[in-house]
Amino acid sequence: MTEFVSKIDKEKRKQAAELLRSHYIKLIEQVKREEPPVLEIPKRTLTNTIYDKERKLLLLGPEKLRRNFLDLNEAKKFMQTVLMASIIYEALVNDEYPTIRDLYYRGKHTLILREPSGKSYEENTWDEQDESDDVIVDIEVYTKLLREEMLILSKEKGKVVGDMRIRSGNDVIDLSKMGHGAYAIEPTPDFIEFLDYNAEFVLVIEKDAVFQQLHRIGFWKQYKAILITSSGQPDRATRRFVRRLNEELKLPVYILTDADPYGWYIYSVFRIGSIQLSHESERLATPDAKFLGVSMTDIFGDRSKKPYLTEQERKNFIIKAKDVDIKRALELKSYEWFKTKAWEKEVSMFLEKKSKLEIEAMASKGLKFLAFNYIPEKIKNNDYIA
Amino acid sequence: MTEFVSKIDKEKRKQAAELLRSHYIKLIEQVKREEPPVLEIPKRTLTNTIYDKERKLLLLGPEKLRRNFLDLNEAKKFMQTVLMASIIYEALVNDEYPTIRDLYYRGKHTLILREPSGKSYEENTWDEQDESDDVIVDIEVYTKLLREEMLILSKEKGKVVGDMRIRSGNDVIDLSKMGHGAYAIEPTPDFIEFLDYNAEFVLVIEKDAVFQQLHRIGFWKQYKAILITSSGQPDRATRRFVRRLNEELKLPVYILTDADPYGWYIYSVFRIGSIQLSHESERLATPDAKFLGVSMTDIFGDRSKKPYLTEQERKNFIIKAKDVDIKRALELKSYEWFKTKAWEKEVSMFLEKKSKLEIEAMASKGLKFLAFNYIPEKIKNNDYIA
User: Fold this and answer.
1) What are the catalytic residues of B?
2) CA of A207 to nearest chain B CA: how many angstroms apart?
3) Is pLDDT at A2 greater than 70 in this prediction?
4) Half-sphere exposure in the Cβ direction for A274 (13 Å, CA)
5) Would you call A217 and B97 a contact, using CB atoms and an 8 Å cutoff?
6) Which letter, b or e, does each residue of B112-129 get, where b requires 16 or more Cβ atoms within 10 Å of its Cβ?
7) In this complex, how many residue pairs, one in chain A and one in chain B, have their CB atoms less than 8 Å apart?
């Protein structure tokens, strides 16, 4: 039944299975040498998460934890890690494509421990998916394989159109021939091969509906753009796809979100990654990504810049910031990578005006205004926050 | 700047603009005849929503409301409807592609009314999007144009792959050549032309991640299926796309969701539509759609059927129903279209067992089990709820 599976999947799963095996075979060697089995795994703690100013990335530091099978406090976690590694390995060699939810179910069962006295205990391998997800991340960090490289699939929201050809699976796909629709990015974007393209930059749009509008009016054709939407908070595949366009094709990346702390956070995830999952940042983050807008000075202007909105439009379009927005703004302010002059200005202006704005408000001035005036003018004038 | 816009969009927007104009020109004629301007609009009330047993559709009944400009209680709503119609008309003739959010912003402003005495009142056209959305529906019902036909775009989640060629915009797209990715359906699926296909049925999957798995393992190639995901609650475009595949190509449609009342509700939206928006049902619903599973008898079996899960698997995979699930089940039970023997059995079994199950639990028995055993066997045996 695997005759329909792509060649690249077969290759990649073979590589991953071998690498995974080589990492865990160490445990058997330890047992054979009559040593206690121990896993050495990079620590995923806040204190071991370092912001690399040069590379502008959140990275895991050098600290490691030793997970010892014979330590009672660590035995369960040890077992969970080894159980999960074996489930992933089985899936790899059996041509399966599990999701992290599957992996949770596959490993979920009750162990019954019987003491010589006859007394017995029950222990679940795990109860909630949090626990199984956590050991998957341990395995990623330990093997340096991202879960996508282990053929673990997931829900995907990212879409792309543009003058570009790619190879995915056994097919060549022309991203400029998607009609009114778009190409939905695969969950394993590292398996994509970039063939040829005619594009000068990448525009990432937070909102799917705005992506549809810009696509339909021909924005990417007019300005030689690769147009992408993350449909809200970006998933891993969209982040990796954007990073690859930037790193491998040297295309500048501009990110367009609502003018509010949630939009900044989306930008931040693209640019830096999340603190919780800094081990991924090295592969998924795009440190060069620029925040194109909508910025506070687009709304209000400043000494050197005319605002894009009139007084009347501000009155009709601006939304009053909520407490949760203010809270999030203060939180972002404390992040190392927001401690730049431009971001401090942006955040202070927001805190002073207590105002936010949706991209749709810009589109409601006319889609042509958004597509053929606002966006290209800002790019041309380098009017973004880097 | 419109040289990049597709031919079909230009035609469709011309048609819509003319139709919209012909409906509202009546008001000017009334004024010229010195009659009070009145709009006659089909009533969108629960009492005027009828379940057509023959066509298995929720439809609007014959009742109409008269919205009279000179009636103080109706003047505001009258103004809102006419304002919105004029904004949509402007967008149509100006080659715009608004979203419903845009339309809200475009019309949002404050009217100042000055009495001869000098006293003045302020009145907003609308405050919340609910209000502007509501008049858009009135316009749809009044003109019999769906908003998509008026080139109003929206966020889209639906994806498709399969052995089929379609024309969208100016492009021909081969849905069998999407690699590991998929084709993201456009917001205006009525503009799609079906060219040729080699498929025997349509399988709609609630969950995007399960869609990814079945796609990747070659399910649609093996069984000649058009594979679709709605990514949760289906949007209008996905519903319309599925309906067209069923109606125009006579392909049977099977829907696969989690085994819980939320999954049944998703099925119900595909099959019948929502009560609130029954005017759409006639175009968006697929009354022939079959609920393939996961059903309660798949989990527990019954006199004539062996369950797909072992006792041990039930123990590990089943999730206890929550109060909200029970409540939703009781609600669904009261719907006319759930009052069939098969559904009554399904719902009672759920209420008795108070158990639900995710599709992922089936996949965790092995993706090959889900793809090459469970789904095809159920289709072959007509083991679904119609």
Assistant:
1) 105
2) 8
3) no
4) 9
5) yes
6) eeeeeeeeeeeeebbeee
7) 231
d(CA B18, CA B211): 41
CA dist B242 and B272 (Å) reads 13
| Nearest alpha carbon to residue A170 among B221, B209, B203, B165 | B221
Q: What would the pLDDT profile of A184-238 be if each residue is shown by its tens digit?
A: 999 999 999 999 999 999 999 999 999 999 999 999 999 999 999 999 999 999 9
Between strands A253-256 and A201-205, the pairing is: parallel
- Using CA atoms, how far apart are residues A2 and A287, in angstroms rounded to an integer? 39
- What angle, 0 to 180 degrees and rounded to 10, lies between the N-to-C axes of helices B236-249 and B261-271? 60
Q: Report which residue type is found at B300.
A: F
**Catalytic residue (choose from A105, A142, A183, A254):** A105
Rounded to a whole number, what is the distance in Å from the CA of A110 to chain B's nearest CA?
8
> For residues A334-354, b (16+ Cβ closer than 10 Å) or e, as one string?
ebebbeeeebeebbebbbeee
What structural domains and CATH numbers belong to chain A? 7-150 (1.10.10.10), 159-380 (3.40.1360.10)
Residues of A in contact with B109 (CB under 8 A): 312, 316
**pLDDT tens-digit map of B161-182:** 999 999 999 999 999 999 999 9
Identify the bridge partners of residue B159 per DSSP, sorted by sequence position: B184, B229
Rg (CA), chain A: 24
Q: Is the pTM of this model over 0.90?
A: yes
The predicted structure's pLDDT at residue A315: 92
Contact state of B212 with A105 under an 8 Å Cβ cutoff: no
Per-residue pLDDT, averaged over A27-35, amounts to 92
- The Cβ of residue B370 has, within 10 Å, a number of other Cβ atoms equal to 25
Q: Which residues of B touch A1 (CB under 8 A)?
A: 217-218, 222, 368, 371-372
Residue B214 above 90 pLDDT?
yes
Please give the Cα distance from B201 to B253 (Å, whole number). Answer: 6
Token pair for A192: 């994509």
Q: Which residues of A touch B154 (CB under 8 A)?
A: 209, 212
- B170:A179 CB<8 A: yes
State how far the Cα of A285 lies from the Cα of A91, in Å rounded to an integer: 28
Split at pLDDT 50, 70, 90, the class of B73 is confident
- Whether residues A360 and B221 touch (CB distance < 8 A) is answered with no
- Cβ(B59)–Cβ(B30) below 8 Å: no
Does the pLDDT at position A111 exceed 80? yes
Least Cα separation, residue B215 to chain A (angstroms): 9
Of B159, B186, B191, the CB nearest to A184: B159
Place of tokens 């050197």: A304
Asked whether residue B276 carries a pLDDT value surpassing 80, the answer given is: no
Q: Where are the alpha helices (DSSP H) in chain A?
A: 7-32, 75-93, 100-107, 129-143, 208-216, 219-223, 236-249, 261-271, 278-284, 296-300, 311-317, 323-333, 341-353, 359-363, 367-369, 375-380
Cα A365 to Cα B89: distance, rounded to the nearest angstrom: 15
Q: Which value does ipTM take for this structure?
A: 0.94
- The sign of the CA dihedral A274, A278, A284, A290 is positive
